[in-house]
Structure prediction request, 225 residues.
Amino acid sequence: MLKFIKVVFALVRKDISLEYRTKEIMNSMFVFAFLVVVVFSFIFDPGEHEQAQIAGGVYWMALIFSGLLGLGKSMQSEITGGNIEALILSPISRNAIFFGKVISNLIFMLVMQLVMLPLFAALYEVNIVSHVLMIAVIAGTTYGFVLLGTLFSLIAARTRSREIMLPLLLLPVLVPLILAAIQTTGALSAGDPPEEYMKWLRLIFVYDIIFTSVAAVVFDAVTEE
Prediction:
C-alpha cells in the first residue's frame, strides 16, 4: 500500500510539474469555460428564482465541456510522448497509474473551478456555494466526471476520431451524475427544503463508489488492449 501511494503521488507531481511549465491544459479549459459562462449570461435574463435554477445547469455544462477538452489534451500528451506505454511496462501497479492520473486531472478541474466560481457569481448574481453541501456536490461530481473521463480518454486517444469519440463514449454514462448535480445545485441555490435534494446528493456518491470499483477493474483490460 505504501508503494502504491508513493507511485500515485510521484505521477501527480510529474503531471503538475509538466502543466506548470506548459499550462496547456489549464489555459484551454479556462478559455472554454469562460466563453460558455459569458455567452449564456447574455442569453438568460429570468427572475431571481429561475436564475438560481438555470445557473446550476449552465455551471455544470461549462465544467463538463471544458473538462472534456482538458481530459483529451491530458491523455493525448501521455500517448504522444510514449509515457503511458512506459508506465504500463514498468513494475508498478496499473491502478496506481490510473489513480495518479485521476488525481492530477481532479486537481486541474478543482483549480479551474476556483477561478470560475467568482466569475459565475458576478455574471449570474448567484452564489453557487451558498450552502455548505455545495462543496460536497462539487467535489463528488467533479471526481465522478474525472474518474470516468480519464478512463474513456485513454480509450478515445487511440482512435482516429478521438475528439469525437471521447464525448460520444463519456456523456451517455455521465447522464445520471450530471442530472443529479444540476438538480442538487438548483435546489441548494434556490433554498429548497432538504427533501428536494438529498436523494440527488446520495445518487452522486453512490455513483462515485460504484464507478470507482468498475474503473479500477476495467483499466487493466483497457491497458492490455
Remarks:
- The chain has eight helices and no strands.
- The CA atoms of residues 17 and 23 lie 10 Å apart.
- Residues 48-80 form the longest helix (33 residues).
